[in-house]
Design a protein that fits this description.
Number of helices: 6
Order of helices and strands: HHEHEEEEEEEEEHEEHEEEEEEEEEEH
Largest sheet: 7 strands, antiparallel
CATH architecture of the largest domain: Sandwich
Structural class: alpha+beta
Radius of gyration: 23 Å
Shape: globular
Bound molecules: fe (ii) ion
CATH topology of the largest domain: Jelly Rolls
Helix content: 10-25%
Distance between the termini: 48 Å
Number of domains: 2
Number of strands: 22
CATH class of the largest domain: Mainly Beta
Length: 324
Amino acid sequence: MSAVTAEDYDKAASMEELYALLAKQGIENGWNKPEPSLWPLPNRDFVPAHWSYREAKAALNAAGRFVNTELAERRNLILANPIPGNKYPTVKTLICAYQMVKAGETARSHRHSANALRLVLDTGENAFTIVDGKKVPMVSGDVLLTPNWSWHAHSNESTQHAYWMDFLDVPTVHLLGPMFFEHHPEGIEKADEIASDSPMRFPFEETKARLAAEKEFAAGCRIIELGNPPPAMKTISLKVIRVDAGASFELEPSTLSTIYSPMYGAGKVTMEDKTFTWSRGDSIAGPSSYPQRWEAEEESYLLQVSDEPLLSRLDWLRPVPPRS
Ligand SMILES: [Fe+2]
């Protein structure tokens, strides 16, 4: 810190001299800033986007030819929101990636402070995520949680490649700072017991049955929350929306950042001036402050991943007025 004294400020004879003294101390003035610190409505710095599973799967198959087994846990495709300069977040607080573990491969155990979950897309029998020493089966349509600091590995003991989507709150951890990560000392954590009924697993058949028993929130549309009752993750909300063939629903713009993947079905979604046609396994970024209108061509199940618990807890979950 340079030596600027109270007397120097007393002697300042012009605004320019005052600016020079402030600059020497690394102090910014609040009355003449080029960018305001506060503004009336949330910035829309992320955009709606869509990625196709069909293409992602082909890209993973190509990566499978070049990325060796030693790096199996990192053979993934990160869906960075297509805004200038962005290499990582899918929406402001969340990241989504496609991953493939080849038949017979294992991905080593590790744990991190970031919360993670996966939606299983295509696997053969006997593909597992090992969570805290238990083998949790991965079946198409299942959602598996690995909350903050749980050990996890993947073991594909089937004869087919396994494909899934990962969702993590890493952008939130980057923002707040509490990143911790470590590899398991055994490489792959020892696990003999198969835990089909693990509380960390939401089998699709159960999700489907729960939805069938749920009341409609709009004509032909039903919604449930995974992790309610717990286990739930403190930063991420998981919901599944069933939309019957020909049905539709709308979400008003809000501060919520969302990512969707259709677990089954096909249809289209409009977010302001962008319309995407989606089918099973695709990924759709629904950033905050954009309206969403979802329409299903056939009976569809949409996984919605959002930062709702975080925003609710902080009293920052609010509607945002439409911009156009
Ligand atoms: Fe991980």
